[in-house]
Amino acid sequence: MTTPQLTKNQALVFDTLTKAEAPLSAYTILDKLRDHGFRAPLQVYRALDKLLEYGVVHRLESINSFVACAHPDENCHSHGLVAFAICESCGQVIEFHDHEVDHRLMGWLKSQKFKAEKSTIEIRGHCASCAA
Amino acid sequence: MTTPQLTKNQALVFDTLTKAEAPLSAYTILDKLRDHGFRAPLQVYRALDKLLEYGVVHRLESINSFVACAHPDENCHSHGLVAFAICESCGQVIEFHDHEVDHRLMGWLKSQKFKAEKSTIEIRGHCASCAA
DNA sequence: ATCAATTGCGTAATGCTATAACGTGTGCGA
DNA sequence: TCGCACACGTTATAGCATTACGCAATTGAT
Lengths: 132, 132
Ligand SMILES: [Zn+2]
Ligand SMILES: [Zn+2]
Ligand SMILES: [Zn+2]
Ligand SMILES: [Zn+2]
What we know:
By secondary structure, the first copy, chain A, is of the alpha+beta class. Chain A has helices at 8-19, 26-32, 41-54, 76-79, 99-111; strands spanning 57-60, 65-68, 83-87, 93-96, 115-126. Chain A has two domains: 8-68, Arc Repressor Mutant, subunit A; 78-125, 2-Layer Sandwich (Dna Ligase, domain 1), CATH 3.30.1490.190. In chain A, 38% of the residues lie in helices and 22% in strands. Chain A starts with 7 loop residues before the first helix and ends in a 6-residue tail after the last strand. The A-B interface holds A 61-62, 83, 85, 87-88, 94, 96, 98, 100-101, 104-105, 108-109, 112-128, 131 and B 61-62, 83, 85, 87-88, 94, 96, 98, 100-101, 104-105, 108-109, 112-128, 131. Chain A binds a DNA duplex through residues 7-10, 25-27, 39-43, 45-46, 50, 64.
């Protein structure tokens, strides 16, 4: 998927996520963009939907938040699973890919004749800095 | 973790989940239990918290729902990751465990000095019956 | 037996997350 | 010019989860 030119709203949301040091909720993004004319949640959600579609943003299901893709250049996303380690202290997210895990999971799913479409792999815990 | 005797509310919620053929949201559980005296979401959430703690119920983060554990007898949960395949047509959930995936993920996390505490692995798609 | 601490329960209020429904404007090809 | 697709703005609503308060039952010393 090649990323088309972003619209104004999409660019604002993407910028906000890119500059953030931790995942942001849709409503947090909304608050950060009020000065730029954002007034309603839907403006954020609509932009996020497109950014997710383009693959430049990920949604973290376990914390209802969004994060800019850490590997926008690699094309891993098209043929592999993405996993996230999320620090519950500082919020930092490490995004990673592992074809071994990928193959193993896909193999199991295939044996069950389950047709996979979307995947979520999220590990919550504490990062090296925060693990005291 | 050994499961203590369930309280009345906990047993009602657990029963509801056990009988269900698909994951249920907290509010759906609430509706199903109104005849048994449930009036507020908190009654459900409190019971769910305990059931999750005992490991007899799982939360599916990607669909904000809860499901009874499919392997209540095995003690896999204590030393391994749990994964779910969720059919978006019929709602059916397949719960499975794979030590290979487990080791691989944990190895990676260890290399990052990340201390894992909770994990979420959920694959959404279509089950064998629904995959037309 | 009594007191204190813990746990569960009931209710009301609130907060956070996400979508539905409606209408407007703009660009672009038929 | 018409029709269509798409982005946008606004209001209202739906869905998910927690905070806060008080009371009752249980437990476990003293
Ligand atoms: Zn990515
Ligand atoms: Zn951290
Ligand atoms: Zn289980
Ligand atoms: Zn199905």
